[in-house]
Each structure stands twice: as C-alpha cells, then as structure tokens.
Amino acid sequence: HPDMRQMADSASLRGLRKDGSEFPVDIRLSPAETEEGLLITAVIRDMSESQRAQAALEDSEERFHRLSEVTLDGVVIHENGIILDANRAFAVMFGYEESEMMGRSIFDILAPQSRDDVLRVITAQIEGIRHYTGLRKDGSTFPIEVHARTYPFEGRDTRVAAVRDVTERLRAEEALRESE
To answer: I want to staple 90 with a disulfide (CB 3.0 to 4.6 A). Which of 36, 86, 148, 178 is the partner?
Structure first.
C-alpha cells in the first residue's frame, strides 16, 4: 500500500485478545523496498506490564512527594549533586524559594569545609547519617544533620536526603555540658 511509506515507525494502539479483552500494544513498522515491492516488518509488543510498572512508579513518587511536604525536615532529591526536587522546608532552611532550588548544585548550600566529604559520600553512594555545615543564601552557616540514601526517582537512581538544622540541639547539649 503506498500510504505505508508515510506511516510513523511506531504507534501505540489497543490489541484484542482471543477472549475479547483489550490490551495496550506498541507497534513498530519498518518498511523496506525489495525487488518484489514494499516489504513491511512489524514488531508488536504487549505494553500491559510496562504501563502497570509506570503507574506504580508514578504512585510511589506522588506518595513520596506528599510525605516530604508534611515533614519538618528538609527533603532534597539530587542526581550527581544537581537538585531535582526539594520540599518547602528544605528551601526555607537555606533561605531560598522552592523555585530557586531546582537545578542548583548541592555544593551551593554547603560550607566549603563540607564539600569534599559530601562529594566522596555521593560518589561512593554511602548511606546513613552525617554532619556538615550548611550555607544559607545570605552567607551564614549552620550545623546540619543529613541522612542520605540512593532512591529511584523518575526512573533513575538518585540520592534523597533528609536534612535537619541541628543548631538548637547542639546549643542544648552545650548548655547541659556547662551545667554539669
């Protein structure tokens, strides 16, 4: 058929099973001119499981986002040190608007003395609690506790970290030591 030469090389359609039920399919067509005429090869793939997995991933990410917004800790997701997402508490802790966080390097919010260790931890994908010095937008520094781990986000392995300002806790510990 002459129109076959004009067809897209891929289409998402609905397949029909013998029992009459429908299912999502991806069809890829590859036309080739031969001596006998136009030859079309088709690859048809059942997309049911892929769509279920995608829906489950989206549900998981939505649940994670809702939970991160109600926590008092700052929550940040980054890939190789570039912030992909952060909750409001995280942005406020460092003196930024949420919109200013996306695409920013996490090294922008760390005091210089903390950067080498953070780079080592990210590179080695070390998980657990660590202590660093945060750097606010106004240039002031403060002690932070970071609990980081590798986490799948939008189909990629990223790092998610819960960040807590521990200024008050350290002051209370110091006051207790002095009183003893």
So the answer is: 86
